[in-house]
Amino acid sequence: MYDGGRIITGLIIALALFLFPFYWDAGFASKAPEIELTPKAKEAKVCVLEKDFMRTNHMKLLDQWRHQVVRDAERYYTTEDGRVFYKSLQVTCMDCHSNKTKFCDQCHNYMDVVPYCWDCHIAPEETSNVNE
Amino acid sequence: MNRREFIKIAGLAGLAGLGGKAAFELLLPGQVEAGIKDLPLTQGKKWGMVIDMTKMNDEIMDVCVKACHTIHNVPNMIDEEKPESERWEIKWLWKETYEHSFPGQEHEYVADKYHQRNFLILCNHCTSPPCCRACPTKATWKRVKDGVVMMDPHRCIGCRFCMAACPFGARSFNWANPRMVMQDEKLKKLNPGFPFNKDYPTRTKGVVEKCNFCAERLAKGQYPACVEAANEIMPNAMVFGDLDDAKSEIRKALKENYTIRRKPELGTGPNLYYII
Asked: Which residues from B are below 8 Å from A88, CB to CB?
């Protein structure tokens, strides 16, 4: 190989540069945010579906609800244990989870997802004593 | 509507108004849902409206417009000092002159009592709506169940084909984010407390909006906001009901009065009737 030394040195430098961000951030993983519940949400104990399902699939449920409400005019949701909810992010979900910054935004920011819900839907007014 | 139905509506509408979910929790699960399904106002097959212009005046119409625009978070974005290109008008319900309401019916000898007054105008919820045919994304469509011409801002891409297709000018385009009225000093004064209704969304820049016949209120068994507001001041100024039901109030009003529609010659089948 002609200029083998230079090529290999170059490759090593390139690899080092490529891996540098991983090395730099190693051990400093930012902690996943903890979800905070409002007293109202805590008291209710269960959401419309199981907690684990809601955690991973709330966006799918919201999408389904949106479709059913807007397009099919089906506005009420009955849970398996027979509770009835008005399908509405703004009116029903945010009634319990009125701490949007702690409940929604924290995780969304951590995951770098930007849902456009709040371009139109009105976020609940948060007061400082919401978590008291 | 008989006495029994009236009491049912009044009771449940009251409950729903009390604070939605809190009220539901007092009842047995499923009871409210079942109860709401029985309400006459959730049962219509073809909603329509009769506006009795003999009972209307400018003040009542203003009250109707305000009721509608407050409930649906429709801001007033007309700042007179700005150039016309920056005065964005969003309207669901508005007043219009005779010649603009009923073009083709106008001539130079029209009686003053018609010619010099305003008419209350909103989406006609046409039987054969041209806007729905024009929409490339089905963001607007005619609801099969009850004939309301619905609008889904989630899907709207803002192409404004529907606005070009609608012969009644019933649609408005959001040239700016309606929430800008919360920032702009002058517009803030015109819209104190915007968003007015915290239970209803606003729209966003780049979508078309229009009257939805208060679909969200019908679902709870309540009359459209304008009808409720008008009838509070002048009973029977507006009649809302099911055109498919021969015994309904609206059919009675149509049977007893001569009514006209806007541009019926276009064949879109408007479902708004005016007693003049």
From this structure: 199
